[in-house]
Amino acid sequence: MQDISVIIADITTLECDAIVNAANSSLLGGGGVDGAIHRAAGPKLLEECRSLHGCQTGEAKITSGYNLPSDHVIHTVGPVYSGSSGDSISLASCYTNSLNLARKHNLHSIAFPSISTGVYGYPAQEAARTAFCACISWLQEHQDYSIRIIFCCFDSYTKSLYEKLVTEQR
Ligand code: ADP
């Protein structure tokens, strides 16, 4: 079974096999969703993150979820928006590499925030399209893998963008 859903929520409240963190390359915490995840997970998350020695843009690394209701956190580093064609390639890689990691660890539910659309400045509509297309492509390439993908939006505008993409795809 493969499924895509769109919700509005604080990602730290979700009970999934993994939630995705829009981290920075140090993996040592930051603002936005990153700060919220570290606060909710507790100090052991930072301890494990220190052992990972950072993460490059577009790549993903996994940790335990500690005090979060979700079992794991997949940390990925979105691109800082520059307006160049490389932005969407990096952003798509965040989603693809996170899903690859989920599959490698036999995880079957994963919630994504809208990566790069906060302080990294990626326009929400473009980011939603890139995120959605990357996930759809991944699902098509892994049709035998059962997974629930949740786009966890933090505002109603972002949610409406993803809902439109889901409707168009059906
Ligand atoms: P980035 O540095 O990748 O831009 P941000 O954390 O600044 O990351 O923002 C990414 C997205 O996450 C934004 O759309 C922001 O509204 C959203 N966001 C912030 N806090 C949360 C949260 N607790 N749960 C879900 N989404 C969140």
SSE map:
Layout: E1 2-8, E2 18-23, H1 32-41, H2 43-50, E3 60-64, E4 72-77, H3 86-104, E5 109-112, H4 124-141, E6 147-153, H5 156-169
Parallel strand pairs: 1-6, 2-4, 2-5, 5-6
Antiparallel strand pairs: 3-4
Helix pairs in contact: 3-4, 4-5
Bound molecules: adenosine-5'-diphosphate.
Adenosine-5'-diphosphate is lined by residues 10-12, 22, 32-34, 36, 78, 113-120, 152, 154, 158.
How does this structure look, described?
With 170 residues, this protein is of the alpha/beta class. It has one domain: Leucine Aminopeptidase, subunit E, domain 1 (3-Layer(aba) Sandwich). Helix content is 41%, strand content 21%. It contains five helices and six strands. Strands 1-6-5-2-4-3 form a six-stranded mixed β-sheet, with helices on both faces. A hairpin with a 7-residue loop joins strand 3 and strand 4. The model has no long low-confidence stretch (mean pLDDT 98).
Brief overview:
The protein has 170 residues and is α/β, with parallel strands linked by helices. The chain is 41% helix and 21% strand.
